[in-house]
Amino acid sequence: MIRRERVFLGLGSNVRPRRSRLRGAARALARLPGTRVVRASSVYETSPVGPAQADYLNAVVEIATGLPPVDLLRELKLLERALGRRPRGRWRPREIDLDVLFYGRRRVHAPGLAVPHPHWRERRFVLEPLAEIAPRFRDPVTGQTVARARAKLTAPDQRIKLASPAIL
Fold it and tell me: Catalytic: which of 18, 97, 121, 123?
């Protein structure tokens, strides 16, 4: 029997059709080998981090997967391309962005992959949907709960509002 890890993924899009891209990504995650979708957050509309551009739609999805972290990253990059992501460089608009936020209680440092995600505590567009579905999940580095991290966040420049119910 394959051991499945509890993994949280951040999803984002600011290139139309944003909502259908998020929905397509969430559905495609369930088709990854040895993977099932456990739950998905609501969709939040958020201001971009970095240069001026269109607002994002963001969500967080919890999956259970038997894929090792680097294999999961490879599958996510293939999925991004299949959903139309074009290379534009850092801080640029994205058709779809899929980030590994947490991979169970593991700490992972591999080329192109740092888990826990190094900026998860600083980003309202991660904390709000993550706290919605997993407020008691603990950061394997600090032991802090997601709910506590959200309560401590002070980022008045990051606008966020609920855009729609869960993407699935």
Answer: 97
Residues in the chain, how many? 168
Catalytic-residue membership of 85? yes
107 exposure class (CB count in 10 Å sphere: 0-12, 13-18, 19+): exposed
Q: Give the H or E element holding residue 52.
A: none
Q: What is the pTM of this model?
A: 0.95
Residue 146, domain extent: 5-164
Q: How many domains does the chain have?
A: 1
Catalytic residue among 18, 23, 94, 123: 94
**Is pLDDT at 109 greater than 60 in this prediction?**
yes
Whether pLDDT at 59 is above 60: yes
| pLDDT tens-digit map of 65-92 | 999 999 999 999 999 999 999 988 787 8
